[in-house]
Design a protein that fits this description.
177 residues; alpha+beta; globular; Acyl_CoA_acyltransferase; GNAT family N-acetyltransferase; GNAT_dom
């Protein structure tokens, strides 16, 4: 596990893994979005509670996860607005604020089906405050959604009529799960 900016030594390897995973369906991220991951990593590494877990083999970085503590002022960029729209401000405060937010989980195709994702999630959430961790994924990523269910993560049901493009999950041991 790496905490804070120490992970920046691995930026190139992590960006390569990110590109391989997220350029494929259903994500279909373009070269610019993939390039922006390395830029985001620079800023994210300075977030409160930032940490990275990664799996390596003789082939290099097989997968990684990044996380940080969700700030009191819940962000509005990226998919955060969709999270607030689905859960409402009160549930965001109760479930997510101060919890460990898993931002990225990427496992290269050759490392899937061997427990790599499960191990990365276990490592990165091991010291989550009061076992409170959460993540979101795209609703169209049905295999990913099914994987989180299989790993014991709990889907937070949207408020009536608010379902959108993201699915929010709480960690298996989250006290509100």
């Amino acid at each position: 596990m790496c905490y804070g900016p120490a992970v920046l030594d691995l930026t190139e390897e992590l960006a390569d893994a990110y590109g391989e995973v997220f350029s494929a369906p259903p994500w279909n991220e373009d070269e610019e979005t993939i390039r922006q991951f390395a830029v985001r990593l620079q800023a994210d590494s300075r977030r409160t509670g930032f940490r990275t877990a990664f799996a390596q083999s003789r082939l290099g970085v097989d997968g990684f996860a990044t996380a940080w503590l969700t700030p009191r002022a819940f962000p509005t960029g990226r998919a955060y607005g969709q999270v607030t729209a689905q859960l409402g401000r009160q549930r965001v405060r109760e479930l997510l604020i101060g919890a460990l937010e898993i931002d990225e989980l990427a496992v290269r195709p050759h490392a899937r089906g061997h427990g790599t994702g499960r191990a990365l999630l276990a490592e990165i959430t091991a010291d989550a405050p009061d076992d409170r961790a959460w993540l979101l994924t795209a609703r169209v990523a049905t295999d990913t959604v099914a994987t989180y269910h299989r790993l014991g993560w709990h889907e937070v049901k949207p408020l009536p009529g608010t379902e959108n493009a993201v699915v929010v999950f709480l960690a298996p041991n989250h006290p509100s799960a």
